[in-house]
Amino acid sequence: AASPVVDEAEAVEFLELFHAENPEAGPAAPRIRWVRAEIGFTGTYQHTSAELAFGARVAWRNSARCIGRLYWRSMRVRDLRAVREPAAVAAECAEHLRIAFNGGKVRPLITVFAPDAPGRPGPRIWNEQLIRYAGHRQADGSVLGDPRYAGFTEAVGRLGWRRPERPSAFDALPLVVSSDGETHLSTLPEDAVVEVPLVHPELEWFAELGLRWHAVPAISNMRLSIGGVSYPAAPFNGWYMGTEIGARNLTDPDRYDLLPEVGRRLGLDTGREQTLWKDRALVEINRAVLHSFAAAGVTISDHHTESARFLKHLEKEERAGRVCPADWSWIVPPMSGGLTPVFHRYYDTPHLRPEFVADEDATR
Amino acid sequence: AASPVVDEAEAVEFLELFHAENPEAGPAAPRIRWVRAEIGFTGTYQHTSAELAFGARVAWRNSARCIGRLYWRSMRVRDLRAVREPAAVAAECAEHLRIAFNGGKVRPLITVFAPDAPGRPGPRIWNEQLIRYAGHRQADGSVLGDPRYAGFTEAVGRLGWRRPERPSAFDALPLVVSSDGETHLSTLPEDAVVEVPLVHPELEWFAELGLRWHAVPAISNMRLSIGGVSYPAAPFNGWYMGTEIGARNLTDPDRYDLLPEVGRRLGLDTGREQTLWKDRALVEINRAVLHSFAAAGVTISDHHTESARFLKHLEKEERAGRVCPADWSWIVPPMSGGLTPVFHRYYDTPHLRPEFVADEDATR
Ligand code: HEM
Ligand code: HEM
Is residue A324 annotated as part of the catalytic site, yes or no? Predict the structure, then answer.
């Protein structure tokens, strides 16, 4: 990835936004003059800490696919722009997870590592999320664990990762960080990976399935783009909405694909679609997820609550005189869509900056 | 609604499509010459029966919001272009319902009444569907029946409709047809309105709710537009997908809003969203719908089955060298979206003709 000179127009647009929304920072003009000169000399510029924090929060506010944006102002921002060495990046990612977990009261957090600069790209984290589970391909072609990461698991194997002696369905993958031509592999320390064992509020047998999930969802492969400056390593997290685990990760046919087993254990007639056995099993899995997190004292929210919050967010944004971009097909939850108020309306979809960018073609 | 002269380019585009997909009809050129002349003399032109049937079927094929398009070729087309008098239109709408119901083996059908012509608009049906239930506004402001049609119910009251002596939650609305300046109100004959009482495969008390729904969903307020000619009255029907009844009509808060009652009857903790009581009640209502229709011998399909059929349709269309327009937010069912294969992809959205047009701004 080449790191071109910063686009001056993008820088100016951002600085004007920053000063407009932060009147206490004074007028924009002097700062813009300074940044123009800095770009002229160095090809890029340094954000102030306040600009960086604002830029990161607004990038969240502008994430059209995110239903969780009501609390965008309160996200904590760790300014680690001085950190770029792969092992240090990895260690700070572990620290990110500890701070974000916060004893169970999960808090939105972003850690921003060194930016791209002309001729010197910043560090890069190759994992999609800081915590994801390995997919161990078995001799018979099946996958133990998360099939989505079977390819990534093979790749880290080639880089030297040794899978656990007794591989399980929930082995956290190592972090892969590269920077300045060096690629570093590191196992996450145990205390950084808090997990919740999944039990059901009524169905005793559910615990026997041996399911678990990690507490903190932290996306680590999206580039944070602020005012023309790119931060390729800027992992961020919120708390989980239950359906992400219960209606996608555990149930998608190309993920843990648990519906057939849960349907059988529930004693449902899984031979005919019209019994809606899948829909019933889905509800029970999602009840288990929400119940287990709550019982373990780990923040999680259900899709009804997050939908209501999101409508509140839209209202607040409107009152602030802003348009809020939203992508219907991502905002509407993957289960009981029609039951959530976010289903029954359309949204604006302008593309706004600052933003998080998926450099690979994003697919659901 | 003024009825302007037919757009020649649209006519030609359609005739070329017709002849391209129906080689047995011979070359397009002579027909196009004829139609150009006809438009020149009369401002419009008459479709042949074959053109009309093809145009109606392709309008269905082009309906980006419809998941049920696999069987587009087999829709029956009733050519009633000679019918325009309001009472006759209403009588033929009743006949449409009988033919479509077909003893329970519901078949896709469209009845095409007289088109718009310059200076003489065709007849118009004011009902959204041929069968919909009245919403009787009560003294206390609440609505008995379907709140969506409370306004329409008041309007037909002003036109002279007398609601049943003992109004119920499921009183079929009268048809309102206007043509040549005359508006006609007519009650649907009983034998045209077949209904299914809703029972649950296991929960005895479900029958006590006294719910029912009509067998045939026939949209009657969309204009059929073929090759520049508009047919304002062209009611069409397929069979129901269960979620239309169970996850929208019976459950939307501004429709029958049944979740709270069903949740209570199920003994669920309806005070806290995270118990997913809404999701559980939703599944049971939808099971009841599918079970009741099947038990009554009336065609219905579940969202899993229709999703699979739709993917088959996409494949067939692709093999035929056509793009298939599809609107994600309408195609993905309102419950268990993520469980259906239609969720996990994007679609093309070109606007194609012939088409069904909602002249009012369509909102979900
Ligand atoms: C506070 C709690 C949060 C909740 C409940 C939440 C919820 C969600 C959900 C349900 C999705 C869709 C995920 C999917 O379908 O794969 C999503 C996507 C997204 N969220 Fe949030 N989120 C939260 C915090 C955050 C934060 C702190 C950020 C960034 C600072 C963020 C940025 C995004 C982005 C960029 C996406 C799109 C990801 C992609 O394209 O794959 N969210 N969020
Ligand atoms: C054969 C069985 C059929 C099934 C299962 C089916 C299913 C559906 C469903 C589930 C919707 C969405 C409804 C909503 O969310 O409000 C829909 C919409 C639609 N369907 Fe079908 N359909 C069928 C037949 C037909 C036929 C025969 C036609 C026309 C000839 C048709 C044209 C349409 C149109 C135009 C819409 C959009 C309606 C609007 O904009 O409100 N469908 N269909």
Answer: no
- Nearest chain A residue to B334 by CA: give it: A338
**pLDDT-above-90 percentage for chain A:** 97
Nearest to A336 among B274, B282, B329 (CB): B282
pLDDT along chain B (364 residues), means of 10: 85 98 98 98 98 98 98 98 98 98 98 97 98 97 98 97 97 98 96 98 98 98 98 98 98 98 98 98 98 98 98 98 97 98 95 93 37
The long-range contacts involving A194-197, CB below 8 angstroms and separated by at least 24 positions, are A194/A97, A194/A101, A194/A104, A194/A298, A195/A170, A196/A292, A196/A293, A196/A296, A196/A298, A197/A292, A197/A296
Residues contacting residue A235 through CB under 8 Å, at least 6 positions apart: A93, A96, A110, A111, A125, A130, A218, A219, A220
Note the maximum CA span of chain A.
71
CA of B67 to the centre of ligand 2 (A): 7
Give Cβ neighbours of residue B308 (< 8 Å, ≥ 6 apart).
B341
* Token output for A88: 């240090």
**Interface with chain B: mutation pick from A255, A283, A330, highest number of B CBs within 10 Å:** A283
Q: Who contacts B68 (Cβ-Cβ below 8 Å, separation ≥6)?
A: B238, B239, B241, B306, B309, B310
DSSP E strand boundaries for chain B: 76-79, 109-112, 124-125, 135-137, 143-145, 175-179, 182-186, 195-197, 212-214, 218-219, 223-226, 229-231, 236-237, 240-241, 300-301, 355-357
Does position A361 have pLDDT exceeding 80, yes or no? no
The active-site residue, picked from B132, B239, B306, B317, is B239
Confidence band, pLDDT 50/70/90 cuts, at residue A2: low
d(CA B222, CA B95): 19
DSSP code, position A248: I
ipTM of this predicted structure? 0.96
Interface of A with B (CB under 8 A): 242-243, 247-248, 251-252, 259, 273-276, 278-280, 282-283, 286-287, 290-291, 294, 301-302, 304-305, 328-329, 332-339, 343-345, 364
How many CA within 13 A on the CB side of residue A269? 7
Q: CA A94, A99, A103, A106 torsion: positive or negative?
A: negative
Distances (CA, A) of B240 to B215, B287, B326: 8, 14, 19
Q: Is B320 helix (H, G, I), strand (E, B) or coil?
A: coil
Catalytic residue among A98, A128, A244, A309: A244
Cross-chain CB nearest to A283 (options B259, B283, B332): B283
Pick from B134, B357, B91, B37: nearest CA to B226: B357
* Tens-digit pLDDT profile for residues A28-72: 999 999 999 999 999 999 999 999 999 999 999 999 999 999 999
Is the pLDDT reported for residue A107 higher than 60? yes
Query: The domain A8-132+172-331 belongs to what CATH superfamily?
Result: Nitric Oxide Synthase; Chain A, domain 1 (3.90.340.10)
B72 close to ligand 2 (CB < 6 Angstrom): no
Within 8 A of B336 by CB-CB distance, chain A residues are 278-279, 282, 334-336
Amino acid identity for residue B27 in this structure: P
Query: Minimum-distance ligand to the CA of B354?
Result: 2
Q: How far apart are CA A93 and CA A101, in angstroms?
A: 12
**CA–CA separation, A159 and A146 (whole Å):** 19
Residue A76: helix, strand or coil by DSSP?
strand
Catalytic, B202? Answer no
